[in-house]
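hey so u asked for the seq, here:
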Amino acid sequence: MTEETGVRWRLAVPPEVETEYVGTTLGPYYSDARVAVDTQLQACEVFRNLYGVATGEPSVPVPAYVGVASLGASMVLPDDHPPMVANQGRVLADWPAVLALRPAVPESSEWLNRYLEMREEMGRLLGKLPPLGAGQEGPITSAVLLRGDQFFLDVLDEPEVAHHLLGVVTQTYISFVRHVRRLNGQEEHGGVGIADDMAGMLPPSLWPEFVLPYWERIYQELGPGRRSVHTELLRPGHLPFLRQLDIGSYDPGNDQYLEVTDIVPLVEHMDVSWNLYTVRDMLNGTPESVRSTYENAVAAGARVIMTELCRRTPRENVHAFVEVGRRFE
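ran it, structure tokens below
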């Protein structure tokens, strides 16, 4: 494999790394408009100066748990830890509670309204309104956040309960995305991205009943447009379903169950982002191992390579990733 192959690459810089480089903390980042604006602008400048990479335009830092919070989850913003669900898996204690649940209305979401206020303040500081996210996890992940491990037993023992919950979180997802698109001045229909890390916890044999219909509903009702998905626990047996769903872009993240060779057959049908692992490769690696891992992935057939940083990643490893990325670009 030569450098002329044109392998694309991307460096993902999450809020915990932006705040690390700038010297702020995550609690204020997710709750204070000025901290969010200053952190994002300064981080972009720092990364441009250090690595020649921009981190993107400022946006409202809406946590992915706003959707489940509107369905009864208790979302908290620790002082210097990413947002979390304090009562994860304990929101719906029994099946009557599940069957009583109804889709959330975005206009009534306390957390979404907080972030609308934050957006207004960020807009005053920036001179223009930044984009707002819908704060949604995919259907299976949302179901697990609300019901916990019991959801996987429901799938087997009480399938009508599992389907009711999946229907509620799917409708909530669609409603929130539509609402936020209107607020952002976007078209109501367009490309659709789903992040559903827990979907791989269901075996391939259960996907046709419990995953595909709900993903397809989201893609249908919010599309047409390019379909993308991020999910980190898939096995090789799940991958044919991505083609069945006509996925245009697939990010396996740090999927411990897949190798580059598993995803290469998908490359001719969709964009597949092979990841250098955040901890194994970038945090605990060396510049030499980062370059070698990247080169091996290209040699195996990867055409899009990315990595997401975490705190304390050695800067020399980041430099190595950017250097080898540009070399194969």
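The mean pLDDT is 96. Residues 238 and 259 are 13 Å apart (CA to CA).
lmk if thats what u needed
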